[in-house]
Design brief:
Elements lengths: L2 H23 L3 H11 L1 H12 L4 H12 L3 H9 L2
Helix pairs in contact: 1-2, 2-3
């Protein structure tokens, strides 16, 4: 893996891993995400950005990866291996 991507992933994944596990374990993942967005300004901004761009997070994710020159599957595979 590219060392720059590896550094980015390590920093990103540490905080994201906990959030991902909480949402995954929740009985109502949508309610959990809304609650987290209210309590975390960065997540709130992200959710707002998703809604401003059509509300399709998957499509936005792939589009942003393409714009940044990042392989989206690297992040997806890391999430699957949690």
């Amino acid at each position: 893996m590219n060392p720059i991507i590896s550094q980015m992933m390590n920093g990103f994944m540490s905080g994201f891993t906990n959030m991902f596990k909480q949402v995954k374990a929740a009985q109502n993942p949508n309610a959990m995400m809304q609650s987290m967005a209210q309590n975390n300004s960065q997540l709130g901004q992200t959710m707002s950005f998703i809604n401003q761009n059509g509300g399709n997070a998957k499509q936005l994710y792939y589009s942003m990866c393409q714009q940044k020159g990042v392989d989206p599957n690297i992040i997806i595979n890391n999430l699957k291996n949690m």
